[in-house]
Every structure is written in C-alpha cells, then in structure tokens.
Amino acid sequence: MALRLTAKVFEKRFCRFCQAAKKFNRAAYSTTTDPTQDAEYSDIVISGGGMVGAAMACALANNKFLKDKKIVLLESQRDTGDFVLPEKYSNRTCALSPATIRLLDSFGAWKEIEAMRCHPVLRMQVWESCSDALITFSNPDMTESLAHIVENDVILAGIMKALKAVKNRVDVRYESKAVSYKIPEGHDPPEQKQPFVEMILNDNKVLRTRLLIGADGMNSEVRKAAKFHTIRRDYGQSAVVATLVLADGPANNTAWQRFLPKGPIAFLPLSDKLSSLVWTTTPEDAKHLLQIPRESFVDAVNDALWNDRDKNAFAGQVFDFYKNLLRTVLPGESNTIRQLPPTVMDVQEGSRAAFPLTLIHASHYVKPRVALVGDAGHRLHPLAGQGVNLGFGDVQCLSDILGRAAYNGSDLGSLPHLLQYETERQRHNVPVMVAIDGLQRLYCNQFTPFVVLRNLGLHTVQSLPFLKNAIINQASV
Ligand SMILES: Cc1cc2nc3c(=O)[nH]c(=O)nc-3n(C[C@H](O)[C@H](O)[C@H](O)COP(=O)(O)OP(=O)(O)OC[C@H]3O[C@@H](n4cnc5c(N)ncnc54)[C@H](O)[C@@H]3O)c2cc1C
C-alpha cells in the first residue's frame, strides 16, 4: 500500500517535471515570437560574408542536393555595390593553392577572378640570413604554377559575382548580424529536442535555422556564443604589408622568402613590376616601418633581403662540410641554382599597413547545429600563406558532407555528419598549423645548434627531390 502511494506521488511529480521541462523548452525556443508566426526560418545561416563565408554560400548554392534549402548569408559590413577593379593594386593579397583554385573554379568564381587579375607563382625560393642554406620549389619545366597571388578584394568580388549568377539561391543581407544567439547545449543529441538555433538580429527580427555556420573571422562571435574551447598564442609579432615596385629584371614569377632573426620577409609577385610584401617583425619595428619616409622604407626592405650581418660562421662551416658530404653520397644531387632576389625601387603610396599576428584554434569545429569555417575555427601565422586556403578546404568538405546529409534526408544540423566534417578537417588543418607554428619557433631562434640543425634539414630536403615533391603535393591539396 505504502509502496503504491509512493509510486503515485512519484508519477505525479514526474508528470509535473515533464510539463515544466516542456514549458522550459518552449520558452527557450520561442523567446519573442512563435516559431510558426513572426520568426523567420532558414535551413542554413552563414554568419560572415568574407572570402570564406561567401565561398561557403556559393558552394552550398551550387550543391545539387541542397537545391530546395533556404540559405541566408549575414554580413555585418555594408554593401559596397558592384566591384570596379581599381587601377591601384591592394596591399591585402593571398597566395591561392591549386586546391583552392579548383574549388573556386567549381562554382565559376575562378574565371571571374582571372578576368579581373591574378598572377602565377612558378618558383619559390626560401633562405635565411644566418647561412647560405636555401630551398627552391617549382614544378617540372616551370610550366605549371605553384600558386596564384590574388588581391583579397578580387577574390571576394569573384565569389560574389559567381553567387549572383546562381540567382536567388542565397539571401545575402548586408549590415546584418546577430546580436544574441540561443544555441542547443550538451551532447546528448540535443538537436532532437532543440530543433533550431535562434538568433535575434540587429534589426530585432528573429531568425531560426537548422544549422548556423560561423564564418565571421578570427574574433568569431559564433565561436564565442557557442562556447567553443579555443587555444590562442599571441606571436608578439606584426606583419607589415605593402605593394612594392621592382627594378627591371627577369620575369616576376618567383615568390621569395628570407627568414630574418625577427621573422620572415616575403615578396609575392603581383604583376611584371609589382610584388606584395609581407614582412613579419616586432610590433615596435612594424610601427617604425610604417612611419619612416618612403625612401627609407625601400632601403630597409632591400637591406632585409640582401644584408650579411646575421651570418653565423660556425653554422656556415658545418653547412659547407655537410653540403660536400652529401654531394659525395648523392652524386646525382643537383647543384642548387641560387637566384638573386629583385631590387625594390619604390613602395606604392599609402600601401603600408601592419597586422598583429596570433594563432587561434578552436578545439572543436562543431557542436549540435553549429559549425565553424575559416578563421573562425583557425587562424595561423602567414609565413606559409595557408590561412585562407585552409578555410576554402573547410568549405569544400562541409559542402560535400551537407549535400550527402540532405540526400539521405538527415537533419542538416545534427551532430553525426557535422562530426565527420570536424574529423576530416582537423586531420588536415592541425598538422599544417603545428608545422607552421614549429617553423616560426625554429627560425626565430638564433642559438647556434638550432641554426646548424635547420640548415642541415633544409639542405637535406633540397637535395631529395621526392621529399620536395611530397611538400609541393601536400601544399596543393
Ligand atoms: C598579412 C597577412 C597575409 C596573409 N596571407 C595569406 C596568404 O598568402 N594565403 C592565405 O591562404 N592566407 C593568408 N592570410 C590569411 C587570410 O587573410 C585569412 O585566413 C582570411 O582572410 C580569412 O578569411 P575569413 O573569411 O575566414 O575571415 P575574414 O576575412 O575575417 O572575414 C570575416 C567576415 O565576417 C564579417 N563579420 C564579422 N563578424 C560578424 C558578425 N558578427 N556577423 C556577420 N558578419 C560578421 C566581417 O565583416 C568579414 O567580412 C594572410 C593573413 C595576413 C594577416
């Protein structure tokens, strides 16, 4: 009898608990509006219309399995209208890998970019100021390009033109951003109980979506709102960028990078006469480089490329001995052809700028109903020119996986296929990030044993074509 009474009381309380839970669930997902009434619904919302977010929108719009899905792209900046290619080159550029070009080509953006402007890189030469060790990369006969240098504005304009061509597939909203988010929490398929991410936009409208894609850059608000654990390392360095005018010389199709004690200096070919500068140094030096007169800046750049001040005599002797030894062990080892870097004549007026450098990596790229792409998930040192390429890789992968999920009739925001995206991308991105971070640490160290080791390592790779080809292939995917 007592047992039955206890069971009844328990049943009553349990029912009350269930009702309260249902009420709470409803309240959490119908803040200002009812789902079927005032709130707007979209299958996928992309927050951030930079290069990666816009490419995400374009890839989804062209995915045949997502044809019936409603897609919204929110960009906080204003619409600058149809892009008119300025005569003057921009100081913000990216080296695009062959894999990125294939992605852009798949949805028609690459032909738009080619019709505007881009410049091929046929050869790369990397060396350092402490010794004569160097490494060069090129495809056989220098016919195929290793990368293309394109201004960021041109990349974005090419993608937006391609997006316009897929009429009305994506609802692009400028000056629009979420001011608050309600995101499902926990890992016990909460997406089943919580069918939407709900956002209140800056115009007070409520927007619900099955899947929110955070493409809102290194300070991603989506990443913060969804409470992704994030690893950060401030490099204590800044990248000085500028557009350089080169002296007459051979065809400008080599990318040059010289490691200096305070960070690497790189020239990326923009046209026959112009190169884009990315010079990593201390924040104090960066500030100074932005303030000095143009002529002094040009002198400083030429000095950084040519000076012999940092040569380490002991490391040089060990390197010469190793080079000769390798020549006897590997008789076929070709003599490295050292090309002389170009001389800078001038810097374009107003093209100098500096950016602080940070490494950011979200430990996870997905949560129920949320995925991060591009710099929102990972921001890295620009020394290998991989940042946006990794972001475009995310786009390709997530678009393929969402297409398959839609084909199978799955909920787009559910965790199982989002986890496939995370696994696939972290397997690719994490080793790249670790390698670049390792290179940055290795080359900022002037301790002689480090200098010796990196020289020997660099020369070994230079002498073994299969290793170099493996690096080229890895950078192309
Ligand atoms: C000096 C330098 C050189 C580089 N060189 C290379 C290179 O050679 N190759 C390479 O691959 N990478 C390079 N990178 C890295 C590359 O620039 C970045 O990886 C790339 O810009 C990231 O693009 P993204 O679209 O992810 O983010 P972002 O470019 O930051 O775009 C984010 C977008 O989201 C919008 N936004 C922000 N918050 C919100 C919000 N709350 N709601 C809506 N919209 C929002 C912003 O307005 C912006 O349009 C370089 C970086 C630097 C600093």
UniProtKB/TrEMBL annotation:
Alphabetical UniProt keywords: FAD, Flavoprotein, Membrane, Mitochondrion, Mitochondrion inner membrane, Monooxygenase, Oxidoreductase, Transit peptide, Ubiquinone biosynthesis
Has UniProt tagged this entry with the keyword Oxidoreductase? yes
Spell out the reaction equation it catalyses: a 2-methoxy-6-(all-trans-polyprenyl)phenol + 2 reduced [2Fe-2S]-[ferredoxin] + O2 + 2 H(+) = a 2-methoxy-6-(all-trans-polyprenyl)benzene-1,4-diol + 2 oxidized [2Fe-2S]-[ferredoxin] + H2O; a 4-hydroxy-3-(all-trans-polyprenyl)benzoate + 2 reduced [2Fe-2S]-[ferredoxin] + O2 + 2 H(+) = a 3,4-dihydroxy-5-(all-trans-polyprenyl)benzoate + 2 oxidized [2Fe-2S]-[ferredoxin] + H2O
Q: Which GO terms describe its cellular component?
A: extrinsic component of mitochondrial inner membrane
Q: Name one GO molecular function term.
A: oxidoreductase activity, acting on paired donors, with incorporation or reduction of molecular oxygen, reduced flavin or flavoprotein as one donor, and incorporation of one atom of oxygen
Q: What cofactor is this protein dependent on?
A: FAD
Gene3D superfamilies xref list: FAD/NAD(P)-binding domain
- Pathway named in the protein's UniProt entry: Cofactor biosynthesis; ubiquinone biosynthesis
Q: Spell out the family assignment given in the record's similarity comment.
A: Belongs to the UbiH/COQ6 family.
Q: Any idea what job this protein has?
A: FAD-dependent monooxygenase required for two non-consecutive steps during ubiquinone biosynthesis. Required for the C5-ring hydroxylation during ubiquinone biosynthesis by catalyzing the hydroxylation of 4-hydroxy-3-(all-trans-polyprenyl)benzoic acid to 3,4-dihydroxy-5-(all-trans-polyprenyl)benzoic acid. Also acts downstream of coq4, for the C1-hydroxylation during ubiquinone biosynthesis by catalyzing the hydroxylation of 2-methoxy-6-(all-trans-polyprenyl)phenol to 2-methoxy-6-(all-trans-polyprenyl)benzene-1,4-diol.
Q: Which PANTHER family does the protein's record reference?
A: UBIQUINONE BIOSYNTHESIS MONOOXYGENASE COQ6, MITOCHONDRIAL
Q: How does it assemble?
A: Component of a multi-subunit COQ enzyme complex.
Its protein name is Ubiquinone biosynthesis monooxygenase COQ6, mitochondrial
What organism is this sequence from?
A: Candidula unifasciata
Taxonomic lineage per UniProt? Eukaryota, Metazoa, Spiralia, Lophotrochozoa, Mollusca
